[in-house]
Design goal:
alpha+beta, 8-stranded mixed sheet, 39 helices, 40 strands, elongated
């Protein structure tokens, strides 16, 4: 039998011609192909796909913009196609001879663009990688290419010298890189870009050829691709100008050359194209632009597959309407042939140039330029005409029409353009005849391959936001000279090229979107401490607080700030409308961040560190970060930005989250300018980290497996306990708290000791601890949060690092400390005296009680949820959940058994909040050991301090801080203070207005004289060694740092000695009096400090008569010649020996006061000498300064005071108090109705060596004694509450004094342009700055002004009475609070708040003379009596350069000659009634 047929035909023979050996895989071949592409050896044919239009739906209801289907980020295949077209143009169309040629004068030479494209890409890749955390990323070598190739030119056509910022290119051809160098650089950049796609691209599910990226990176990839696409067209319209020339550009290879002769015979090329019109109805609404918000880019979020990027001028999406009248639009663009007709008839005769893309050949024929060379008008007659806006506008006008607006053109393009045959994306390499739309059948057309002009000027839309990545892309051209163009030309690349599968298969999955922010570990526990130990310690503190007696129970504030608590606090700032603190701070920072940074003195090009304590969400901080970034002139291309910001907070996860948000939102603005890092720990830990040099090292002081040092990625750190990772209880909450018990009059804040707890309770934590909590019948049961402990250690700079440090402490977080603890905490901040370090501090005011209560207990319950979370955390800690502390004992604190309540305590100035138990609770804490139940009613919770102005100034004084500037929110409810630790501070006494006896409810009538300032003096009789140290710091700053060597032998004013005299006089005076008093003590052998002859030169200075300088009291005789004076070195060595002598006197004779170890008492005769010599030096510091001010600002003149923030005059003069008129008012002093006390009883004759000075004794100069009573005059007087100001004296001077031939006031000067300026120690300032300062001048000047105003200057009694009642604000400008006057603060008489005069002494019309009972000083007999001459007037108060020990002693009387013009003495006007 025949077998069945199994094969009809044999398989065909196939030969294997593949190159790879049998062992090679397909992937190997793909890899080889990739290598070829990167090497530029493989140039596949390129085409650019397009989206499909829907010709059957030609309607406004579906514009083409709704049909976009391009992926947001170009694929690697698209890059390959783009590189192919770029290389075709630059390597195959541009001959080598053209590389150094400018085809058009308004652009660079060709070689520039070969380098510009890869350079632009490389710069932006570097920036974005650094923003992603790759700080080590550098630019592709050679790095100097970025200096040449970064940005091209686009000058003004009318004036090519007018040009936006651009790169500076070499002048000489030989100085340019070679073509080979440029191409090698190009290939390295392309390879870098491919690596980024491989590392960060996530293949899209279902379409592996497409990759998605973190959106911030995606934008960069999109932007650099489109940038190169734009430049392909730019370089082509340049090259076309030379096409057809000998050695000109070559035609595009790889594309069939057009057969012009054949094409021109086609009907659409040769026959006139008829035009028709379509009507656009008036009022039609369309959408322009799209919503692409660059500020929302982040590295945490992948781009959406449907997202559409765009340039900054495309955003935002907006609705617009057509005009009030309908318009008809031609469906055919203007053609070459019809423009030729117009040109022949109109333009040529008018002398207009030939259009830029037309050329006249040797035979006089007009031709149209193409990339194949010029073609005749018979070929190009039906092509769309291409030229300048002016040409087409003239044509349209000639035809009786106009060019369309952007809205009209966009509407037309949406409805009628976009045919599949559209001539874009190199469909052809030249224009073609347009296809007119078939409106009747809904078939779209195209315009033949050109952009189209709109009559609309190119300008920003409402809501326009300049691009951060490419800030000048659009805004550089909002100049009124540029017009909008829409559409695209035959050389405009469409947005996406075809998919090439083999490229996509090589992409790797995205391993990490962005690196974690740098976080340093500043936690306090040592390496040996485990997390369980930290939790156990916290648990002990909780139990200690719960076991306190009734009405004193507490919980650690730290419990509020677990990860959930931080987020709940963030909810308060965003959802609690009553919580004004956040909004106030944000408004201040929004409006003033630039000013704040200026006042900080940040120099962006110098290394600077900013640390924010309790940083939180960083939303407000972004304003500061951006302002800091703006100080940097050039971003640092190195590994580290010049400014480093550290956010200090308790929770590492929150730090990672918030820093990530900052990076994704404003990271591009900060790149290379401000590095943002985290600091993980408590306030204690962070400050200790700084104090021990951690910032200089960049790491935490210690490092082991349990501690984080630098980069805290998830992979290299053990997860901390889910609640906390710190043992410290010092970190206060950024929310006010309370400790006072409602309804318990015996309890107040004084019952709370910082961080302390009952010792007996703390020793019984290992026992079973049941607590019975009864529901409250009225007030409720409350648990309070314990106060943070007060740090006491002062900053010690162990690192040697001189980098400026700026600490930011916002949110009124300082209110969580009790007031004494707040001062101690501020003292502990590592701000180096005189270094330029600053503190930006937010403080809440004592506002309306209802407002405060609503703010801290909002109606939405956000505050309550935040606080109640603390109970939840306490529960977890007590259970030991999440760590090996104890087993889970179930519910300890009933979660439904608590509410949160609070109230404002007006007396204490704090908001008090507490938990209230709503039911009886037995708190059983493991281990299970029985303990008797403790039934009780109340357990307290939290408190927060708020500060009046007076309290704030007192706080800063106690913390040795100086106010640089202050900013209030618009409602005046909140302040931000910028503070520094100056090289020295002087303590001051508090005025009555800062005590609780005077507040908003106190009538003005009670503001002194019943409580004059003298009654509040708390200075010890003898200055402490600390006061001497401050005084010496001041003296040395003036004499060694403000007086240049060239000034030592000069006299700044003729009525005083040369500067060097005062350097010797002050220690000589001290030494003479120490010698005398020690000899009186029995030490007869005591001699003067060597060299002894100094006492002959330096004992006493001069104060001659102004009218006749030859009339002078007894004084030392000084050398006539400079060379006969001691050298500065000799004087300084003498000074040091005298100072050492004084310290020995303190050590030998001082008796430490009980309870005040820094204060010493002395035998009263010795005490007087120590007091007198201290005040003598303080007086001379001021004297020397008012001399030096005469030379401030001169060449080789006085230097500004170092170690103090320099005033920002331009900013200060814009402040309301500086720029707006200060309206004055008057207060009445009733005639003879008030008797006041002048002077005090200090009888020098009663001094002895047997009696130690009384701790309350007050020394004074001989003219202050004895105490005496005085009454006001027979008539009442009105006193102006505002001193005489520079501005008003200037008006008087112009009208009266100048015409009368009077001299310019001594503290004024006329500059070279004839402008009057006011002298300061920083140099003269214009009157626009100093107009509202108190005028300082001679008595005669102020007396004349007062008379001109119809008044007079006050008597000593009147002035003393006024000052007792209305002056003495905590803000008083004395004691170097500033180094210049400031606008005065007028007293608020209605509310009993004191004012100040701005920082000057004040003249009295009373002659300086002896009072009844006056006794001349034995120690210094000529101190007063030498000036009882009828020429000297009494002055009271003190200036900005008067130390508080002097300025705040009520009995002090100073004096000056009536015509002495140099001292800082002002005055006020009184009117007799």
């Amino acid at each position: 039998m025949a077998q069945s047929l199994t094969h009809i035909t044999p398989d065909p023979a196939i030969l294997d011609a593949r190159e790879q050996q049998a062992s090679e895989s397909i992937s190997t071949a793909i890899a080889a192909l990739r290598t070829q592409i990167l090497a530029g050896l493989f140039t596949p044919p390129f085409t650019f796909p397009r989206i499909s239009s829907q010709s059957s739906t030609v309607a406004p209801s579906q514009p083409l913009t709704h049909l976009t289907s391009f992926s947001p980020v170009p694929t690697l295949a698209e890059w390959s196609a783009l590189w192919s077209v770029w290389d075709l143009i630059t390597l195959k169309m541009i001959p080598p001879s053209m590389l150094h040629v400018k085809p058009i004068d308004l652009r660079h030479k060709c070689l520039f663009y070969l380098g510009h494209i890869p350079t632009f890409c490389d710069i932006h890749l570097t920036r974005v990688l650094r923003r992603m955390g790759k700080k080590e990323e550098g630019h592709t070598e050679p790095e100097y290419f970025k200096d040449i190739f970064e940005r091209g030119i686009d000058p003004d056509v009318d004036d090519p010298s007018s040009i936006h910022p651009h790169s500076e290119v070499p002048d000489k051809e030989e100085d340019w890189p070679t073509l080979g160098e440029v191409l090698a650089f190009r290939d390295r950049v392309r390879a870098r870009l491919v690596r980024i796609y491989e590392e960060y691209g996530v293949p899209r599910e279902g379409d592996p050829t497409v990759r998605d990226f973190p959106r911030a990176l995606a934008r960069v990839l999109w932007m650099t691709w489109e940038h190169e696409g734009f430049h392909t067209e730019t370089i082509l319209f340049m090259l076309i100008q030379k096409a057809g020339d000998v050695d000109g550009p070559l035609p595009p290879p790889g594309f069939a050359t057009p057969q012009w002769e054949t094409l021109q015979k086609l009907p659409e090329w040769s026959q006139l194209l008829p035009a028709s019109t379509v009507t656009l109805e008036a009022g039609t609404e369309i959408s322009l632009g799209h919503d692409d918000v660059e500020a929302e880019d982040s590295f945490d979020q992948l781009n959406s597959p449907t997202y559409e990027f765009g340039w900054d001028n495309e955003h935002p999406r907006r609705s617009v309407k057509l005009g009030e009248k309908p318009v008809r639009v031609e469906t055919r663009p203007i053609l070459n042939a019809e423009f030729y007709d117009f040109w022949i008839k109109e333009r040529k005769a008018g002398g207009h140039d030939l259009p830029g893309l037309w050329v006249v050949d040797s035979e006089g024929d007009v031709k149209v330029r193409t990339l194949y060379g010029p073609v005749s008008m018979s070929v190009a007659g039906n092509w769309p005409f291409i030229s300048a806006y002016d040409d087409l506008e003239a044509f349209a006008k000639w035809k009786g029409g106009r060019l369309p607006t952007e809205v009209e053109l966009r509407t037309y393009l949406d409805r009628y353009e976009g045919a599949e045959e559209s001539n874009i994306g190199f469909k052809n390499w030249h224009p073609i005849p347009p296809q007119v739309p078939d409106v009747e059948n809904g078939v779209r057309g195209h315009n033949g391959g050109v952009w189209e002009w709109a009559s609309t000027l190119f300008d920003e839309y409402p809501g326009f936001e300049k691009s951060v990545l490419y800030p000048g892309f659009s805004s550089d051209f909002f100049d009124g000279k540029h017009h909008v163009v829409l559409g695209g030309s035959y050389a405009t690349i469409s947005v996406q090229s075809p998919t090439i599968a083999f490229l996509a298969t090589m992409a790797q999955s995205l391993i990490r979107i962005t690196p974690d922010p740098v976080i340093v570990d500043a936690r306090e526990q040592q390496a040996s401490e485990s997390t369980s130990t930290a939790i156990a310690t916290l648990r002990t503190q909780i139990l200690a607080g719960l076991l306190k007696p009734p009405h004193q129970r507490t919980l650690p504030t730290l419990l509020l700030y677990d990860e959930r608590g931080l987020k709940l606090y963030d909810d308060i700032t965003t959802h609690a409308s009553e919580y004004y603190v956040f909004a106030a701070e944000e408004q201040i920072l929004t409006d003033h961040a630039k000013e704040i940074v200026e006042f900080m003195g940040v120099q962006g090009d110098e290394k600077t560190v900013v640390v924010e304590l309790g940083a939180g969400s960083l939303r407000k901080t972004s304003h500061i970060l951006l302002a800091l970034a703006n100080t940097v002139t050039e971003p640092n291309s190195g590994a580290e930005a010049p400014i480093t910001y550290y956010a200090l907070d308790l929770e590492r996860k929150e730090l990672l989250r918030t820093l990530g948000v900052v990076s994704s939102t404003i990271g591009s603005n900060l790149a290379g300018r401000v590095a943002t890092k985290g600091m993980w720990g408590t306030y204690d830990g962070g400050l200790a980290f700084i104090r021990t040099g951690g910032l200089a090292k960049g790491t935490a002081p210690e490092d082991d497996d349990n501690r984080v040092t630098q980069r805290c990625g998830e992979a290299n750190i053990k997860d901390p306990h889910p609640i906390f990772t710190t043992t410290s209880t010092q970190t206060p909450a950024p929310r006010p708290s309370s400790s006072a018990v409602e309804g318990d009059e015996t309890h107040s804040a004084s019952n709370h000791h910082s961080g302390s707890y009952d010792q007996d309770a703390s020793t019984n934590m290992s026992t079973h601890t049941p607590l019975t909590l009864q529901p409250a019948e009225e007030e409720g049961i409350r648990i309070s949060v314990s106060r943070p402990a007060s740090p006491s250690s002062q900053f010690v700079d162990t690192s040697g690092d001189q980098t400026p440090l700026h600490i930011v402490f916002l949110g009124s977080s300082l209110g969580n400390f009790l007031r004494p603890d707040a001062a101690n905490f501020l003292k502990s901040l590592p701000l180096r005296p005189g270094s330029g370090d600053t503190l930006l501090l937010g403080l809440d005011h004592r506002n309306d009680p209802k407002t405060i209560e609503m703010a801290y207990n909002d109606s939405a319950g956000c505050s309550a949820r935040f606080k109640l979370n603390g109970l939840r955390v306490a529960e977890r800690v007590l259970q030991g959940r999440g760590d090996e502390v104890d087993r889970d004992y179930g519910e300890i604190l009933k979660k439904d058994g608590w509410t949160c309540e609070g109230k404002w305590n007006e007396v204490e100035g704090r908001y008090e909040s507490y938990f209230r138990s709503t039911q009886k609770q037995v708190v059983i804490v493991p281990p299970d050991i029985d303990r008797p139940q403790d039934p009780e009613t109340h357990v307290q919770f939290e408190e927060g301090e708020l500060y009046s102005d007076a309290e704030a100034f007192a706080l800063f004084s106690a913390a040795n801080l100086r106010v640089i500037n202050r900013w209030k929110d618009n409602k005046g409810m909140y302040s931000m203070w910028l503070l520094e630790r100056p090289p020295f501070t002087f303590p001051r006494v508090r005025s009555p207005s800062s005590t609780t006896t005077i507040n908003a409810a106190t009538p003005a009538s009670t503001v002194a004289p019943s409580q004059p300032l003298a009654d509040l003096t708390s200075f010890p009789p003898v200055p402490t060694l600390a006061e001497w140290s401050s005084l010496w710091s001041l003296w040395d700053l003036i004499t060694l740092k403000m007086i240049p060597p060239s000034m030592l032998h000069t006299k700044p004013i003729d009525l005083r000695h040369k500067c060097l005299f005062y350097l010797g006089h002050v220690p000589t005076f001290l030494d003479i009096h120490l010698t005398r008093v020690l000899r009186r003590l029995g030490k007869k052998e005591e001699g003067h400090t060597e060299p002894e002859y100094f006492k002959d030169i330096f004992e006493r200075g001069i104060d001659p008569s102004v009218d006749d300088p030859s009339v002078i009291h007894p004084h030392s005789e000084v050398p006539d010649k400079d060379e006969d004076w001691p050298t500065p070195g000799e004087v300084l060595a003498f000074r040091d020996r005298v100072r050492a002598r004084l310290i020995r006197v303190y050590e030998e004779y001082g008796v430490e006061r009980e309870g005040e170890s820094t204060v010493r008492d002395f035998p009263r005769a010795l005490a007087r000498v120590l007091w007198m010599t201290w005040e003598h030096e303080a007086f001379h510091a001021e004297t020397l300064l008012y001399m030096l001010i005469q030379k401030a600002g001169d060449t080789d003149g006085t230097l500004p005071p170092p170690g103090f923030a320099k005033p920002q005059w331009e900013t200060l003069q814009k402040l309301p108090g500086w720029s707006q008129p200060l309206h004055t008012s008057t207060v009445t002093l009733e005639a003879e109705s008030v008797e006041i006390s002048l002077g005090h009883d200090d009888i020098e004759a009663d001094d002895s060596f047997d009696q130690v000075n009384s701790p309350t004794y007050e020394f004074g100069w001989d003219n202050e004694s004895p105490k005496r009573s005085a009454k006001l005059g027979e008539k009442a007087v009105k006193v102006e509450t505002r001193p005489i100001l520079n501005g008003e004296f200037y008006e008087f001077g112009i009208k009266e004094r100048k015409a009368g031939g009077h001299d310019l006031p001594g503290l004024w000067v006329v500059d070279s342009e004839g402008n009057v300026k006011v002298r300061t120690l920083y140099g003269p300032v214009p009157l626009s700055v100093a107009a509202n300062w108190p005028f300082a001048g001679a008595y005669d000047d102020l007396k004349a002004f007062a008379k001109w105003k119809g008044g007079r200057l006050p008597t000593e009694v009147e002035l003393r009475t006024y000052m007792d009642r209305y002056e003495g604000s905590e803000a008083s400008n004395i004691g170097f609070k500033n180094w210049h006057p400031v606008p005065p603060q007028l007293p608020d008489v209605e509310n009993g708040l004191r004012g100040h005069n701005g920082g000057v002494w004040e003249w009295a019309e009373t002659l300086f003379d002896e009072c009844q009972g006056f006794e001349k000083s034995v120690l210094y007999p000529g101190y007063s009596s030498d000036f009882f001459d009828g020429k000297h007037q009494v002055v009271l108060g003190g200036s900005y350069a008067t130390v508080p020990r002097l300025a705040q002693r009520r009995s002090l009387r100073n004096w000056y000659q009536h015509n002495y013009p140099y001292a800082w003495i002002g005055g006020r006007v009184v009117y007799d009634i």
